[in-house]
Amino acid sequence: MSMRKVAVVGAGMTKFVRRALETGKELSWQASSMALQSCEMTMDDVEAVCLGTAPDAFDGVHMNGEYLSDGAGAWRKPYMRSYVGGGTGVFVPIQGWYHVASGLFDVVLVVAEEKMSSYYPHAQGAFLTIFDHTTERALKPNLLWIFALEMNRYMQTYGISKEDIAQVAVKNKRNAADHPSALLGDPNITVEDVLNSEVLAWPVNRLDVSPVSDGAVAIVLAAEHVAKRITDKPVWIEGVGWNLDTAYWTNRDLAYPRYVEYAARMAYDMAGIKEPRKQINIVEPYDPFDYKELHHMEGLLLADRGEAPQMVADGVTQRDGDMPVCPSGGLLGVGNPIAAAGLMKIAELFWQLRGEAGNRQVPGQPTRGLAQAWGDLMQVGTVVIMGR
Amino acid sequence: MSDKISTYPGTSLSEKEIRDGKVLSIQDQMPGKFSWDTGIAIGKYLAGLKDGVIFGSYCATCRRTVVPPRTICEWCFQPMDRYIPLEDTGIVNTFSLCYVTWDVRRIKEPETPAVIEIDGASSLHGIMHKLGEVEPQEIKIGMRVKAVWKSAEMRQGAITDILYFKPHEGSH
Question: Which of residues 92-131 of B touch A (CB under 8 A)?
């Protein structure tokens, strides 16, 4: 397959907040404008726009992609909105990547936006419609159920405790204290705080969960010959992968995300990575709930099955550990405006690999990172590998 | 955020600022009524529930029995071979004790959703339902359970024809 090299050359993001004064369009413009300014480009340089945003039900707007298009700079340009649930934020840069890798465009703006606060009284209600309308919705499920059910199965399968898992929330919320856009950064949070927080759906406590948020993130992608003119520090997209498991989520192994493994293998193959544990320096796996970071580390083949908690306990995944995981602060700390949260991970790798992450900078001049997101009905994995 | 950027946009609002009218907001509702066709396989499933039977379907290519039944096996993309009546017993694959309703109201007595692997279906193949007639703290993964049905005249061909699954001694 002949594909052109694609680089991330700019990035921008808004604060992640519980409820933003700005509309989704305004947030999208703020992030997009920052991303363009960061690489000294204008909308005239952008040939196509890719937008990611999660369920229309949050906004009560049909065809939310069209609604957001002017804020994303799509006027009179080739424009497309992608949506794979929570996986969207890492899928939309993949969509942008193949726009450029294919040779169709030289410069693409990738925007991810989420405004979850509009749904009243709580965004949670909008999630009811993800369950099967005939066989499940009559039971009045909520989104916490599937996370709690999966977390319990994961704990039981490998003998993992809530304390083991709570360490992830502590690490990420502490990391987020260094992120200027973070909603829930807390340098002093402890495992006890997490364990003593309100039980929402055992085994899930309130501090095991990322917050409902509003926010937007944007990046600029460029083909090699353009990227090298724009910056002497392009960050290359070296591999991408995505994969979907069965929508019959009660008919598969909940303890192991095989679809994440398949997405990761696709990306590793493309990037020529044979030993991911040695060749990946920074990991930004999807962490809407703390156990998911562990679950995903195993699916990404970066930890043996059931062994990811030990890596956290040993400090391996701390920002100054051997394999920093969620140095941004992740969704648990920075916030979880769904599609924007995934693209925030791509932006974090961009800043980390350029050595521009400020107080969050991972030491040792990392050369390669991996971002991953997950979604739909617990069944889609999206992976991007970036390097300098 | 990059250390090259000093200010970042986005203005945080509190619920109070909206309640007090300090910022304007528009409220609206979007009522929607739907009538979903059950389709072929789920039609069979619901008809079975009305008769007090849980149906799965069997794929001879993959040699597996799935539940709920479907017309197509998503593994091999071939039509399923036949419907199979399953037991109304099974084991708890996983469960939760949920203190929050779907619309985020807090409740004292937890709801007890579970994935139940149905006897007669392949390993790790189950359905989502609720547990009942059990102290929440007594629920364990691996526990054997049995469906508690609505009375025959009350059943209407819905997943709620099973009220819940309760602990069940003995083998199948």
Answer: 93-104, 110, 113-115, 124-130
